[in-house]
Amino acid sequence: MEKIGIFYGTTTGHTQEIAETIASKLENCELIDVASASKEDIAKYTNLILAASTYGDGDLQSDWEDFAGNLSEDDFSGKIVAIVGLGDQDGYSDSFCDSIGILAELAKKATIIGKTKNENYDFQVSKGLVGDEFLGLAIDEDNQSDLTESRLNAWITDIKTKFK
Ligand SMILES: Cc1cc2nc3c(=O)[nH]c(=O)nc-3n(C[C@H](O)[C@H](O)[C@H](O)COP(=O)(O)O)c2cc1C
Fold this sequence. Notes:
Elements: E1 4-9, H1 14-25, E2 29-33, H2 39-43, E3 47-55, E4 59-60, H3 62-69, E5 80-86, H4 98-106, E6 111-113, E7 116-117, E8 129-130, E9 133-134, E10 137-139, H5 148-159
Bound molecules: flavin mononucleotide.
């Protein structure tokens, strides 16, 4: 498998922890904090994991929002992209893990892998959801941290067969 670039943005550290856990479970990963990343960093990888929490009422985490402003859809053309979103389904039930949907829209020219079923969550609305499927993996460290490890393990088993 070619190198995987894990691009993460974090405000209170949850997404960084998840990104580091993914890197420890998958071989050949490089961790990149989007707070100090550039467009050229994306160009270095065919295999990408994009990891972002949601803030405001359905906005990308602020470093990710700044970084995304420098990117265009064409930057993802020909890439294989897996998305992980962090959110709080209890506090923000109408915008749970919207980051997944925002990143999927940005990366729509890529092949998006790692979609997951909407199972064992309890929320109203998410931009990350299409039908009964998230366009990535939704992690809720605020309310369901006990489910994080099994969710990550199942997701990693799936995505590692799909990267180049
Ligand atoms: C002011 C504020 C707004 C938030 N807005 C949302 C939201 O709209 N949707 C959501 O799913 N989570 C929301 N969250 C929850 C965070 O995304 C969640 O705590 C996440 O784990 C933080 O990850 P980070 O530490 O990597 O930034 C919000 C949290 C705060 C403090």
